[in-house]
Design brief:
Elements lengths: L8 E10 L2 E11 L4 E5 L6 H9 L6 E6 L2 E2 L5 H8 L2 E4 L11 H11 L5 H14 L16 H13 L5 E5 L7 H18 L2 E6 L2 H7 L2 E6 L2 E7 L9 H7 L6 H7 L1
Parallel strand pairs: 3-8, 3-9, 6-7, 7-8
Antiparallel strand pairs: 1-2, 1-4, 4-5, 9-10
Bound molecules: adenosine-5'-diphosphate and magnesium ion.
Magnesium ion binds next to helix 1.
Length: 259
C-alpha cells in the first residue's frame, strides 16, 4: 500500500536573508512521516536558521513550510503556536534556564501550556529523566552543576517531555567527547523510535549523522545540493559531499573559498 499522507514536513522554495547576506536560497525538502532526516553542512551554512524557520522563531522572506499539510506561515498565531508545541527541540548549546532547577527545565513547556500541574511536575520530570538515563534526583540540581553530557541529556529530556510528533536536534554531539557523543546519539535514536516521531538533526559530525539518520541532505550556500540515504554519506559520488564528509582540504568547496 502506498502512503497517501502528506509529508510530515514539506518545505518549498524557502528564502531568508539577513541584510545583504542570503542564508537560505530556495530550500525545498520533504520529510516523510516517521523519518529521521539529517542535514549536514559547514558552520554558518544556515542549518540552525532553517530549523528556526520551521519552529517559527525566524520568519522567512518567502516560500512555504507545511506541517501535516498545513502552511504554518499563513496560519493564525494561535494555530502556529499549537503546531509549534508539537515540536520538541534539543538546542545546540542546551539552552537550559540557569536559574531553574532541572525538573523545572524539563517540564517548562508542559507547565507553560498548563498540560501539567505544578504539584506533579517533579515526579513527571523524574520519569522523563529516567528515559534519558539520569537518576530522578538530578531534577533537584541546577544546569551549572551538570557536566556537558548531562546537560545534553537534560536538553533531550526537555525536548521529549511533551511526547512531540516532531523532534529537532541542533548539533546534538558538538562539544561532547566521541564516546559521550555515541551515547547521546543512541538515546536520540531510542527516543525517536519510542515516540514514533519524525526527526530532523543537523550536524557536521559524520559518525553522528550515520547513527541518527535514515535520509540525509547537504546544505551548501543556502541550497540543498544533495539528498540520499544516510548510509551513502561517505560514498555519495557527489564531489562536494565527498569533500565534506571525508574532511578533505582539496576539492570543489576549497576552490570556492579561494575565489
Ligand atoms: N538572527 C540573525 N541575524 C543575522 N544573521 C544571522 C542570524 N541568525 C543567523 N545569522 C547568520 O546566518 C548564517 C547562518 O547561520 P546558522 O544557521 O546559525 O549557521 P549553522 O549552519 O552553523 O547553524 C550565519 O552567517 C549567521 O551569522
Ligand atoms: Mg548552528
Amino acid at each position: 500500500m502506498t502512503d497517501t499522507r502528506p509529508p510530515k514536513i514539506r518545505i518549498r522554495d524557502l528564502h531568508k536573508s539577513f541584510g545583504a547576506k542570503k542564508v537560505l536560497d530556495g530550500i525545498t525538502l520533504d520529510v516523510p512521516q516517521g523519518t529521521s532526516f539529517v542535514i549536514i553542512g559547514g558552520s554558518g551554512s544556515g542549518k540552525s536558521v532553517l530549523l528556526r524557520c520551521i519552529l517559527g522563531l525566524i520568519v522567512p522572506d518567502s516560500g512555504s513550510i507545511e506541517i501535516d499539510g498545513e502552511n504554518i506561515l499563513t496560519a493564525s498565531t494561535k494555530r502556529r503556536e499549537a503546531l509549534r508545541s508539537e515540536i520538541g527541540m534539543l538546542f545546540q548549546n542546551g539552552a537550559l534556564f540557569d536559574s531553574l532547577p532541572v525538573w523545572e527545565n524539563v517540564t517548562f513547556g508542559l507547565l507553560a501550556r498548563k498540560r501539567l500541574k505544578r504539584s506533579d511536575a517533579r515526579t513527571h520530570a523524574g520519569t522523563i529523566l529516567a528515559q534519558v538515563g539520569l537518576d530522578p534526583s538530578v531534577g533537584e540540581l541546577y544546569p551549572s552543576e551538570l557536566s556537558g553530557g548531562m546537560q545534553k541529556r537534560v536538553g533531550l529530556a526537555r525536548a521529549i517531555a511533551a511526547t512531540p510528533d516532531i523532534l529537532f536536534f541542533d548539533e546534538p554531539t558538538t562539544g561532547l567527547d566521541p564516546i559521550m557523543g555515541a551515547v547521546i546519539d543512541g538515546l536520540i535514536v531510542d527516543c525517536v523510535k519510542k515516540l514514533g516521531s519524525t526527526a530532523i538533526a543537523i550536524t557536521h559530525d559524520m559518525a553522528s549523522a550515520q547513527r541518527i539518520g535514515d535520509e540525509a541532505a547537504m546544505l551548501y550556500k543556502g541550497r540543498l545540493i544533495w539528498q540520499g540515504p544516510a548510509t551513502s554519506l561517505m560514498n555519495s559520488g557527489n564531489p562536494m559531499v565527498d569533500q565534506f564528509t571525508h574532511g578533505r582540504r582539496e576539492g570543489p568547496i576549497g576552490m570556492e573559498l579561494r575565489k
